[in-house]
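May I ask you to review the protein record following this short note?
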Amino acid sequence: MVITSCGGTKGIGGAKLKKMKAEKVIDKYNTNTFDFNTLNAKLRVRYEGKKQSVSPSVTLRMKKDEKIWLSAKMLGITLAKVLITPDKVSYYEKINNSYFEGDFSVLSKFLGTTLNFEQIQQMLIGKAIFDLNSEAFQSSVVSDVYILKPKEELALFQRLLAFNPNTFKLQWQQIAQAEKNRSARINYEEYQKVANQDFPKKIEIQAKDESDITKIKIEYKTVDYNAAVSFPFSIPKGYEKVSIE
């Protein structure tokens, strides 16, 4: 988690990458962030957890700041649906005929770290999962990228972000809780153009909770921008409600 830098390093094109103030890095990032009203996307997902590994096809729909909806299928059969709003997380799955409605603690079971609605939304569209405009950051150059970290770190968390020096899109972001041996790193391996904006093509999430490691790989196959979307979600009758310990 400790990163140091002495002077510039060689950039992507072989030229020496000059240091840049954190404020300027953030300004360039802000001018190139993805903006939208709605999304309708097809994803290929690979989930590797402690107890299972699955590779479903997933439909993702989003209404900015309001709803995130996912439907997971394998062999054309719907396995589960998820609806996330700023207030709660709801899902049901057909294998065990179970459902959940409650707070965001359920996501720690699958992601290895707890994120709120806004952070999940930002993560999926390639934006920082914490506000870069509300506190002071310091900048350094490491391994051909600009690294930002807060000047005054939160007591329980350590946060880092890496930016591509050509596009100022996120290359990765990381948050860690050293005392609890928990961390999550989100790598943006590839971008694509959506409505002439840079949008993630491939995302890899690596989360660690003590000795448990969760890996999630996401590949956007298609992305429909600002289209009309619906969010059908109804828990089937007879399903058993589950609780998250």
User: Anything to note?
Assistant: DSSP finds three helices and 17 strands in the chain. Residues 1-13 have pLDDT under 50 and may be disordered.
